[in-house]
């Protein structure tokens, strides 16, 4: 009798602990919800991260693995319940608990599910609303590309990973030779910066609204050190729609891939990338990947056969 009581208590305790876990997750989710920047692409929710990447470096399967603990709360929480019943009633071993039938299984993934990228340092890494960088990820090889920016301070916003920075310098120089004057607007953004930005937006406009124009921390490509927003001569239309259609924008669309960059959020691909057209946001993925993607008019998601982010507005 006593024994049963004790095990009952122990069980209740473990349940409480378990519930604590899910709450933690929730909290974590809420906490993560800070960040970003204005022009920071539109947000969308939905779908699941990748499926196929196979050996193409990125998120997919491994993401799934990583993300599992965090995302599948529903599945996990199924376990304790039947046990509880058995403890309380009698130990009738083997008797499948009926509870299982009572409650329909919660969907494995919710709309907002996000997986953690397995190889954040990979050059063509896929980071989007469904594939986020690990907490505390900081690229190890950030440098200051020697190109003009619309501001003069030497801040993190100027930094890019070495390979991307080198390619950027080469590209800006090549453009210059053709009379195209490009200017940097914003490149690397730390997780902390992203978090602060998003929090500010959320405070001002509310979480849901903020998500429509600002990426959650960890899901912004700017945190990879491989992306940069560019503007035309004198910083005209920095990260704004009016950059589209300018000669700089046209030049980029035509030539970026020669330098290993892609126009990351092409027109008409919102439902795949999760962002509306951003002619100013270019992303370094390496030459051969860039040429494949731009050659076919595709997106990084399509290249990796990732599940579309989908604009679940
Ligand atoms: Zn951007």
UniProtKB/TrEMBL annotation:
Keywords, alphabetical: Signal
Residue ranges with Basic and acidic residues bias: 26-68, 80-93
Record carries keyword Cell membrane: no
InterPro entries: DD-CPase-like, VanY-like_core_dom, VanY/YodJ_core_dom, Zn_M74/Hedgehog-like
Occurrences of domain D-alanyl-D-alanine carboxypeptidase-like core (ranges): 158-287
A single MF term (Gene Ontology): peptidase activity
Pfam families noted in UniProt: VanY (PF02557)
Composition bias type Low complexity, residue spans: 69-79
SUPFAM superfamilies on file: Hedgehog/DD-peptidase (SSF55166)
Entry protein name: M15 family metallopeptidase
């Amino acid at each position: 009798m006593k024994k049963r009581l004790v095990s009952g208590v122990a069980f209740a305790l473990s349940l409480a602990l378990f519930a604590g876990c899910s709450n933690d997750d929730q909290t974590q989710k809420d906490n993560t919800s800070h960040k970003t920047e204005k022009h920071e692409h539109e947000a969308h929710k939905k779908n699941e991260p990748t499926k196929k990447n196979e050996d193409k470096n990125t998120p997919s399967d491994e993401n799934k693995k990583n993300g599992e603990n965090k995302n599948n709360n529903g599945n996990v929480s199924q376990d304790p319940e039947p046990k509880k019943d058995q403890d309380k009633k009698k130990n009738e071993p083997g008797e499948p608990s009926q509870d299982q039938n009572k409650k329909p299984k919660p969907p494995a993934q919710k709309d907002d599910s996000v997986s953690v990228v397995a190889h954040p340092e990979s050059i063509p890494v896929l980071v989007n609303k469904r594939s986020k960088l690990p907490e505390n990820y900081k690229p190890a090889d950030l440098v200051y590309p020697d190109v003009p920016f619309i501001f003069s301070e030497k801040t993190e916003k100027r930094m890019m990973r070495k390979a991307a920075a080198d390619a950027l310098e080469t590209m800006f120089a090549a453009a210059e030779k053709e009379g195209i004057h490009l200017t940097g607007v914003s490149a690397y953004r730390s997780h902390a910066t992203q978090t602060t930005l998003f929090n500010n937006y959320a405070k001002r406009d509310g979480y849901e609204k903020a998500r429509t124009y600002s990426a959650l921390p960890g899901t912004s490509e700017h945190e990879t050190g491989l992306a940069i927003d560019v503007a035309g001569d004198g910083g005209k239309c920095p990260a704004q729609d009016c950059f589209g259609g300018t000669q700089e924008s046209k030049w980029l669309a035509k030539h970026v891939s020669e330098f290993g960059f892609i126009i990351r959020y092409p027109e008409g691909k919102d439902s795949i990338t999760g962002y509306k057209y951003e002619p100013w946001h270019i992303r370094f993925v390496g030459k051969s990947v860039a040429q494949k993607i731009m050659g076919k008019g595709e997106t990084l998601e399509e290249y990796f056969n990732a599940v579309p982010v989908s604009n679940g507005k």
